[in-house]
Design a protein that fits this description.
The complex is a heterodimer of chains A (115) and B (113). Chain A is an all-beta fold. Chain A has strands at 5-7, 10-13, 19-24, 31-37, 44-50, 53-56, 65-68, 75-79, 88-95, 105-106, 110-114. Helix content of chain B is 0%, strand content 58%. In chain B, strands 2, 4, 5, 9, 10 and 11 form a six-stranded mixed beta sheet that branches. The N and C termini of chain B lie far apart (38 Å). Classes of the chains: A mainly beta (115), B mainly beta (113).
C-alpha cells in the first residue's frame, strides 16, 4: 500500500481480554516503531524494530505488552488481560533507513477502548 | 516525569502574522529535536528538525531555534496560513538511541483568516 496501514482502526474490548493490533509498514522500510497516545497528550514511545530485531522495548509499560515483527515486515502489538488504562490510540510508524525516525511515516492508528 | 514539555495547549494567530510555538526539555542528554504536525484523523507528519550542534534551522516558512543553555526550542512559522492550523508536537532524542522519541503534549495552532 501507499502508506502505513494499521488494523483494526477501532477496537472495543472487554477488560481482561487479549487484543492484537496489526501494523503493515511501507514496503521495504527497515525500522518500525510503536507509540501510544492518550487523549490530549503526545505520542509515548513503546518499542521499535530494525528488520525483525527488537531494538528497544523500554517503553512497554509492563509484561502484558509485547510486540513482534517475525519476518521484518508486518508487526503485531499484543496486549494481554487488557485493563481500562490501556485505552488509547496506538500508532505505528515506519522509516526506510534504520532508526531514522525523522523520516518515519505514521499510520492513522488503532483506537483501543477497554470497557 | 515529563521530559519534554509544551506549556501552551493552544495558540491563535491571525493569517499573515508569525506563529511561535515553544517547547522545553529537562534531559541534557537530548541532542536531536524534531517538530511534527498533526491534522485531525491523521498520524503526525515530520516538519523540521535540529541537532544540538546548531542553534537554528530554516525550511521555507518554518524555522526552529534551539537554546541549549535554557533547554528550550521554538518553532516559528512566518507568515502563518490557515492551512497551518493543526496540532504541533515537539520531540527529542539522543544520538545513542535515535529510534526512541520523547514527545511533548502538543500545542493546537489556529490560524484565523
Amino acid at each position: 500500500g501507499a502508506g502505513v496501514s494499521q488494523s483494526p482502526r477501532y477496537k472495543v474490548t472487554k477488560r481482561g481480554q487479549d487484543v492484537a493490533l496489526r501494523c503493515d509498514p511501507i514496503s521495504g522500510h527497515v525500522s518500525l516503531y510503536w507509540y501510544r497516545q492518550a487523549l490530549g497528550q503526545g505520542p509515548e514511545f513503546l518499542t521499535y524494530f530494525n528488520y525483525e530485531a527488537q531494538q528497544d522495548k523500554s517503553g512497554l509499560p509492563n509484561d502484558r505488552f509485547s510486540a513482534e515483527r517475525p519476518e521484518g515486515s508486518i508487526s503485531t502489538l499484543t496486549i494481554q488481560r487488557t485493563e481500562q488504562r490501556d485505552s488509547a490510540m496506538y500508532r505505528c510508524a515506519s522509516s526506510l533507513k534504520g532508526q531514522d525516525v525523522a523520516e518515519a511515516f505514521f499510520g492513522q492508528g488503532t483506537r483501543l477502548t477497554v470497557v | 516525569d515529563q521530559q519534554v514539555k509544551q506549556n501552551s495547549p493552544s495558540l491563535s494567530v491571525q493569517e499573515g502574522r508569525i506563529s511561535i510555538l515553544n517547547c522545553d526539555y529537562t534531559n541534557s542528554m537530548f541532542d536531536y529535536f524534531l517538530w511534527y504536525k498533526k491534522y485531525p484523523a491523521e498520524g503526525p507528519t515530520f516538519l523540521i528538525s535540529i541537532s544540538s550542534i546548531k542553534d537554528k534551522n530554516e525550511d521555507g516558512r518554518f524555522t526552529v531555534f534551539l537554546n541549549k543553555s535554557a533547554k528550550h526550542l521554538s518553532l516559528h512559522i512566518v507568515p502563518s496560513q490557515p492551512g497551518d492550523s493543526a496540532v504541533y508536537f515537539c520531540a527529542a532524542s539522543h544520538s545513542s538511541n535515535t529510534g526512541k522519541l520523547i514527545f511533548g503534549q502538543g500545542t493546537t495552532l489556529q490560524v484565523k483568516p
